Each structure stands twice: as structure tokens, then as C-alpha cells.
Request: fold
Amino acid sequence: MTQTVAPVDGARTAAPAGTIPTQRTRAGGPRPHGGRSRRTWYVVAGGLALVLAGTTTGVAAQRSAALREEQVAEARLRISAVLPAATTDAGVRDALDAQAATAVYTSARTAAATSAQQVVEHALATLVASPQAGDGPRGQLYTAAGTVSTAIAGPNVSITALRTATGGVPGLEKAVVDAQAAWVAAEQARIAAEQAAAAEAARQAAARASTKTMVKPRSTRTTTTTTQSSGGTAAPAPTGGVPAGGKVCQGSGGAAAEASAGAVGQAINAYRASAGLGALSISRSGSLTSHALNMAATGGIWHSGGDNIVGCVSNGSASSLVAAWSRSPGHNAQMLRTDVSSMSVGAATSAGWLFGAVRFS
Reply:
């Protein structure tokens, strides 16, 4: 049942049960149901939505920034862990590279030292094989070989220094070989000339003998006489004549006698003194004296195997014999040796010729 309440002017009436009270319009009439309340709720809801959206956006931004900071921190940790390892790897790699370079250099220097030693040994062998090459070329090569040996022994000598030290040795070695070859050629030419002269002298002597035979026949019987000279006794000539490779001293031969070994030795010492060298002790050698007598009796010279030099001169003078030796590079080098202190001498004469045989020691 609905209760109706009469309106009282200026007072509000109670709303019927079950209805929602509303405000009246300014003219006293009723306003539409819920119009102002809806707008208010919309504004409030929109504001709340904006607040909630702003709050959500701020929280999300904070969370994103925190995530980025965590990621940066993790990256920094990974980098800090990797960098020391990378640095260590680089150090190890550099050390290995240095070790490999050192090994390569050491191997190359060993090879260079071995090559340089071979150069020295070859140079020394050339010096031994070229005794008549002359003091100049031989001295230069010997000095160069010594320089290379010193370089090899040096612990800090570089490969370049070794190659530089050995670079000039081949040229000096060639100079020694050429000098030795020149001496051999000159000696062979000298011997050939002397042999040609001896052959011509023999031919002339044979011609004279033939003329004398035609005038006055000579006996074919040969008589060997023995004479005394300086306490020696002549030796008979060998039946085979001058051995191959020897030299004929034309006009000598036949009767032979020992000559003064001391005179020959003194002449050699006088020649050494003129060259600024000291005197050698002199001794008479029985074997060399016997050889000198055999050469004088035969009329030629050759080596016995126990002498260094042999010779003959026609005027019988010891100084002339030394002068003849000095004109031969090989004989001259023997008389001017600096590695000896004594000489053994044998001497003999035949038909005015002087024969000598000397051994230096």
C-alpha cells in the first residue's frame, strides 16, 4: 500500500517507499534521474584511471631501469672476468713469439758460425799447400783467418758480423793460390831454361870432345881420382848419372872432394843478417856431406830427402852459391825462415864447382 504525503510549502516530503529521492529543479520541478551523479562518477573514474596508469607507468619505468642496471652490472662482471684472462693470453702469446724468434736466431747464428769455421779451415789448408806464395799474400790470409776465428768465439757477435768477417777471405785465399801458381810456373821455367842451357853446353862439349878425338884418340878407360879438401874425401860418381828431376851442372863431375860446410853456413848467416834476421847455428852433417860429394862426382844436383835446398855454382864460392839460392823464391824463403834456429850443411867441390846441401831445423 502506498502512503501519500501532502506536500508542505518549504518542506521536503518523504519519498515513497522503494523510490530514490531526487533534487528538484530551481523552478520547483524534478530533474532527470541520475544526470549529475553520472558525470561526477565519470570524472572520478577517469581521474582514478589516469592515476592508476601513471602509477603503473612509473612502476614499469622503475622496473626497466632496475633491469638495465642489473644487466649492465652483469656485463661489467663478465668483462672484468674476461679481461685479465685475455691479458694473460696476450702475454703468453708474446712470450711464445719471443721464444720462437730467439730459437730461430740461435739456429741461424749456429749455422753462420759453422760456415765461418769451414772458411777458416779451408784458408789454413790453402796456407799449408802454398808455402812459396810469398809473405804478403800469406800474411794477409793468415790475419783474416784469425779475425774470423775471433769472431766465432765471441758470444755476442752477430750473424752480420760473422758474414762480414768471412766475406773477404775467399779473395785473399785466391791471391795466395795465384801467387803459389806463379811461383811454380817461374820455377818450372827456370829449371827448363837451365836444363836447355845445360843441354846446349853438353852438345858443345861433345862437339869439342869429338874434335879432340879426331886429332888424338883418347883412351876409353875412365880413371877416378880422390883428392883432399877441408878434411873430406871425394866420392865416386853414381853409375846412373843425375836422377830424373835433377839438374845437370855442366862441366863438373868426376873427381870430387869435400868443401867447407862452415863457409856455406856463414854465407847464409851473412845473407840473413842483411835481411835483418838472426844467425843460425851451423853444424856439419855427414849424410849431407856424402850427398854433396855424390852430386859433385855426378855433375848434377838433386834432393836426397834429408835436405831443404841443394845447389851448385861454377866459381866455387860460398857467397856465390848463396846468391844463386837467393834468386830462387823457394830457396830464398828457406834461407830466410824465422821458425828455425839451426842448419846442417854438407859441401863438396868438383872441377872448380861448389856443391851444397842444407837442412834447416
In short: The two ends are 172 Å apart (CA to CA). Confidence is low (pLDDT under 50) at residues 1-11, 22-27, 213-237. Strands lie at 228-229, 232-233, 247-248, 257-258, 281-284, 300-301, 309-313, 342-350, 353-360.
